Amino acid sequence: MPSTSQQSFDYIVVGAGSAGCVLANRLSAEPNVSVALIEAGPSDQQGLGAAYIRTPAGIIRLIANPAFNWMHQFSAEEDLTGQPIHCPRGKVWGGSSAINGMIYMRGGRRDYDRWAELGNRGWSYDEVLPYFKRSEHFEPGESPWHGRGGPLNVTTLRSPSPVNAVFYQAASEAGWTYNADFNGPTQEGYGPFHVTQINGERCSAARAFLHPVLQRDNLTVFSNALTQRVLLQGKRASGVEIRQGQKVLRLQAGREVILCAGAINSPQLLLLSGIGPAEELARHGIAVNHALPGVGKNLQDHQDVMLMYRSEARLGFGIAPVPSALLPLLRAPFQYLFGRRGPMTSNTVESGAFLRLDADAEAPQIGVIVAPALKNQPQRPVPFGNGITLHVGVMHPKSRGEVRLQSANPADKPLLDSGFLSHPDDLDLLVRGVEAIRSLVATPSFARHLKGELIPGEQIRDRAQIEAWIRSSLATVYHPVGTCKMGHDEMAVVDDQLRVQGIDGLRVADASIMPTLITGNTNAPAIMIGEKAADLLLGINMPQSVEVKAKAFAL
Question: Catalytic annotation on 479?
Fold first, then answer.
């Protein structure tokens, strides 16, 4: 039998991911406040894994590594791929920011204004922009859209692949508009991605927000600690129960518990605590402490397919038995070791585009990602040789899925029902996106460097064939959100103060609170959510917190 002990803190933060690391930093900046940060995975600075996390190209060893990854999967659906779809989530200090592609993307003005229009006060673009700026140190320089002096380093890639310049020329020929800064005044167009890197290394949320404050006496970090449930006293959260090896600890929260476990694990934890749809809880013999029908619902992700093209060796990396292909790979470790330059500084997804396919669309409808190598989902084979991969994904999907329990055992992974392509508009956009990519690669600038389409292949041409290929090849770009959505309707889980409906002393602050998906990657928005949550907890308004921002970084 495991032993049990008890400790007390003012605030308990569950999950040392993008939002959790921010909260640990900001809350513990108050010297009279005690903070516990709980992470199910290990430190990001131990063992060989630390090198993979620190090295940008190490993502290829992290994206399917159970030592640092929850290895979640969307359930297999017969009308789609017929097999599970990979859904990696970070299980390590830094969470998914320690294993992701490091793209710094906030989304557009319309994304957040829509949240505000849904009744979420304080979440319009103009109201959240200061939080993005507060967290950021933008190497190219401060501007109305970018901050300086924040802990999160945002920069340009040090050694971009030649494929980017070719892509820019081709996109111009295709009639697309160049955009030097997707986080600037507009998001539409094509251009380079900014990345969360510093001196050629990954700058995760842990590196930016957690490591600089570990010496604070009022901050305690529990690693390799699985949170099993939220402890309740009536309709108030009083703490959490965690397991570390054979020890079970009951941590008491004098003020609040904040779940930052992400769009998969936060709803799972609420369900395990008896908070959620009554029928789902009854199915697993869990007592209903508070019926909340929206927990686990509203699951969204950027549905995505990848087109692969054989290319000249200089344009795309790969394994091929020719010197022109092998020499760059052989040089890469030395370039990185002695100068933090070269291919190992690549985030493997270096540039892209956000496009409207309909002139009257409110925001870009599809996203394009350019990868300087042949790549595929972890469970699928990668073609041999040199080439490039072009992703195309639906930015604002109408399909919705669900997170459900597999059992009442906290160690069992939850079930993810994707609902992908359940709305016909999502499939239509992907078909049109594939056609846009094919028009792009047919431009003179691209065509002269490419040697044929490997996937889906020239034989896939008419609409029915493209639809069938999309269904068989569908994946995501790993941006699940929405499962504890913010709002004021009957399916809302948290209000616009991030308080769980009907439960005192319990909030959720991570990507699960997003009512709708933003246009692009979700790491920067999760950090913003952590920043705003800290001010909500501490009762600080934004103008004041800008003035005293240096306080939060002091040891």
Answer: yes
